[in-house]
Each structure stands twice: as structure tokens, then as C-alpha cells.
Design brief:
The chain is mostly beta strands. The chain has 3 helices and 16 strands. Strands 1-2-3-4-5-6-7-8-9-10-11-12-13-14-15-16 form a 16-stranded antiparallel β-barrel. The protein starts with a helix and ends with a strand.
Length: about 325
């Protein structure tokens, strides 16, 4: 049974439940900001409206649900007519331990920057920012081992292509915790590129909660088995959030490198996202304020800079959420 047959079979299995759908949660969230970029005495300011999403969660039976997240400020393309849709998935829970998700969903790559909802990330690593797609159509099977530990296997369209390609990614993840204060999203990924080659990802996402301080440590290593050094193309990210009442004090820094030797016999890069011979350093800090003490309204003021443009970006903005249906 090939990959396409597996995906089609999963869709046909869950499709009969679609007629019984009920919406449990429907909400919109949005983010807007003013950003001033400063470099060598040059000031460039602009207003941004970079997120406007509709989010829907619902049920069809006591075992089948669905999730939809659509970005109203993103246009579809001929190559990817669902480009604006992050989630459009049916979720089947045949037992307390098993979950099967079929449809468009997040591609399962480890790391907490990658896993975060985009509306909550102010600036990204080069890897996350330049990955052709972070959401794709496919099938995911999750098995809960015990005590918040789960093992997940996923087959989806490749993140190195656009839309509904005939290239795939095969992802295996462990999500859980080592201690009550150390949570993980660790994955092994075999990702097919547009040259019909495979590149492997080993992604270790770690989330540490120490009192009112949260620390994310992400390490992603990317390698083709033909590389001379399989630890020469990587991303390392550290993020710290100190929460005091309604305030968050935040800082993040990341470094990425891909060795110049990581090309095949034809001179084509093994990694089509991070160019060989490329180093990238980025980071910033800021504050967040939650006037009502919840996620309904968030104000932020941040500074960030990277080694590509060397701009000092100063940004102030607001994120808000409003519920239409909540059961």
C-alpha cells in the first residue's frame, strides 16, 4: 500500500461523520503593530497587520471532532489553493490512547519556536522563516503511552514543496516530559525534497518551567547521509520568559549554520532551506502586558535584530481575541 492510498483511505474512513458537525468554539484572533527599522541613521517605519485568523473547533460524535484555522489576510495561489488554511482536519479518537488526524495540519517537526502558533512569534529563525510550508495535508497517528507521554507518526506532503506535491515527509515524534518541569517535543524526520532526495532532521525541543521562569531550548540538526559531517547544518535557539503578574519579560537568541561543503556531486545543496556556507545570528528582547490577565488582549513592545539586514527593529503592537461561540 503506497502513501497516497494510506492518505485517501484515512479520509474515506472519517468522511461519513462530516454531516453531523457541531461547532463548539469559534473565535477570531488578530495582531497589529507599528515597526520602526533603524540602520545607520536611516529610519523606516510602517504599520503592520500581520495576522487575522478564524479558529473553529467542533464535534461530530463523541469520538470524532474537527479543527479549522484559516488566515483571512493570506491569499491562495494556483499552486496551493489552501495556502491560507493552516488547519482543516478531522480528528478521530477511537480510544483514550489513540488519536488519528486526517486533513491539513501542522507538519510535525520538533522545537518550540516551530511548534508555537505564528501569532505568538514576533521574529523567527531563518529555518522556520524560509521553510516553504509548515502545514500540509496528510495523516497523523498518536498513541498516548502514559502520564502525558505520547508517540506520534505522521505522513504528510513535504515541507520543502508547495501545496499538494508528490513529495512526502515521514515524521516520528515523542512528546512528553522527563520531569514535571522539563517538557519535550523531540522528532526524527525523513523529508523528501524536489530533487527526490531525502534529508533527515533530528529536532530536540525542550521546554523548562522553573517557577515563574520558562526556558525553551531548541536544537535542530539537518543532514543527508552523504554529507561528510552530519553535524554541520544546524539551528540552536534559546528563549526565556519571566512572568510577573500581568507582565512577561522576554528574550530570545538563535544561531544557525550550514557548512559550505554540504552539496552533492552536482553542486546542489543537500539543505534547500539553509544555503551552504551561510551563518545566521538573530535575537531580541521585549515585554508583554495582559491587561485582563488572560489571552483576550496582549500588548507588546520589542526590539530585535539579525545578521542579514543589521536593522534595529523597534516594535509596539497589540494582539486580541474575541469569541463568537464558546461551549
Amino acid at each position: 500500500m503506497n502513501v497516497k492510498t494510506i492518505i485517501i483511505s484515512a479520509f474515506l474512513l472519517l468522511a461519513p461523520f462530516a454531516a453531523r458537525a457541531e461547532v463548539d468554539t469559534l473565535y477570531f484572533d488578530a495582531r497589529a503593530a507599528y515597526n520602526e527599522a533603524v540602520k545607520g541613521g536611516r529610519y523606516t517605519g510602517r504599520f503592520l497587520g500581520d495576522h487575522l485568523n478564524v479558529n473553529i473547533y467542533g464535534t461530530m460524535t463523541d469520538k470524532v471532532g474537527f479543527r479549522i484555522r484559516h488566515r483571512l489576510n493570506v491569499a491562495p495561489t494556483a499552486v496551493d489553493p489552501l495556502r491560507a488554511t493552516d488547519w482543516a482536519a478531522l480528528i478521530w479518537r477511537p480510544s483514550d490512547k489513540w488519536t488519528v488526524t486526517s486533513g491539513k495540519q501542522a507538519i510535525l517537526v520538533g522545537g518550540y519556536e516551530y511548534d508555537s502558533m505564528p501569532i505568538d512569534v514576533y521574529f523567527y529563525s531563518n529555518f522556520c522563516n524560509n521553510l516553504p510550508q509548515g502545514y500540509a495535508v496528510g495523516v497523523t497517528t498518536d498513541y498516548k503511552i502514559a502520564g502525558g507521554q505520547s508517540v506520534t507518526f505522521q505522513v504528510v506532503n513535504s515541507p520543502l514543496s508547495y501545496g499538494f506535491s508528490d513529495t512526502f515527509a515521514y515524521n516520528l515524534a515523542w512528546q512528553g516530559h522527563i520531569t514535571p518541569w522539563w517538557h519535550t517535543i523531540w522528532t526524527l524526520n525523513a523529508v523528501e525534497d524536489n530533487y527526490r532526495r531525502f534529508i533527515g532532521y533530528a529536532a530536540l525541543g525542550n521546554h523548562l518551567v522553573l517557577g515563574n521562569v520558562a526556558i525553551d531550548l531548541d536544537l535542530i540538526d539537518r543532514a543527508n547521509l552523504r554529507q561528510d559531517n552530519i553535524f554541520s547544518d544546524y539551528t540552536f535557539i534559546t528563549k526565556v520568559i519571566w512572568s510577573v503578574g500581568k507582565w512577561n519579560y522576554c528574550g530570545k537568541i538563535g544561531f544557525e549554520r550550514n557548512d559550505a561543503a554540504n552539496v552533492d556531486a552536482n553542486g546542489i545543496a543537500y539543505d534547500t532551506v539553509m544555503a551552504p556556507g551561510y551563518d545566521y545570528l538573530y535575537g531580541g528582547c521585549g515585554i508583554e502586558y495582559f491587561p485582563y490577565g488572560d489571552n483576550k488582549l496582549r500588548l507588546h513592545a520589542i526590539w530585535f535584530r539579525d545578521s542579514d539586514n543589521h536593522d534595529n527593529n523597534f516594535q509596539v503592537g497589540v494582539t486580541w481575541r474575541f469569541d463568537l461561540i464558546k461551549r
